[in-house]
Write a structure and sequence with these properties.
- By secondary structure, this protein is α/β, with parallel strands linked by helices.
- It is built from six helices and seven strands; from the N terminus they run H-E-H-E-H-E-H-E-E-E-H-E-H.
- The chain has a seven-stranded parallel sheet with strand order 3-2-1-6-4-7-5, sandwiched between helices.
Length: 179
Amino acid sequence: MRRQLRPTDVKRLNRTWRRNTSNRLSLILESVTGPFNVGSIFRSAAAFGVDQIWLAGNATPPTNPKAGKTALGTERLVTWHEPVPAVDAVKAAREDGYTVLAIELTAEAVPLHRADLARDVCLVVGSEDHGCSPALLDSVDGVCYIPQVGRVGSFNVSVAAAIALAEARRQEWQNLADS
């Protein structure tokens, strides 16, 4: 019979994965204004070991009560920076040693699973309505997209961020033996 892991077992399992994780991962949220989306992104970021989040444009900070309600306290586990212009956030991430890749549908974007994410990478997601701005897209190192086969044109921004973070960690861990 299958049973759920006890909290102690979950901590042990997570510690094992953490020991096998050395790549730094960060995010830029450009004009993501929905507080529930911001809270959800912070929660996913904390789960995947994101080091820092740069807010850009008119992004809602995690101090917003509705964002905090969704983040469930995880916003305290990730370093975040007050909103700055998007190009400045890209510059700051690059100066900190990250390769900056936007998650966006553009003509030159590569499928997410083919992008080289197994390194220190900063992933960028854009606003719920318009995606990443042209200025931001001109300043990043590359662009990738999440392949879809359904009849919907895009993912919710918090879901897209979680998928991209999961793929970055999957690529890093793909050569590890399952524990």
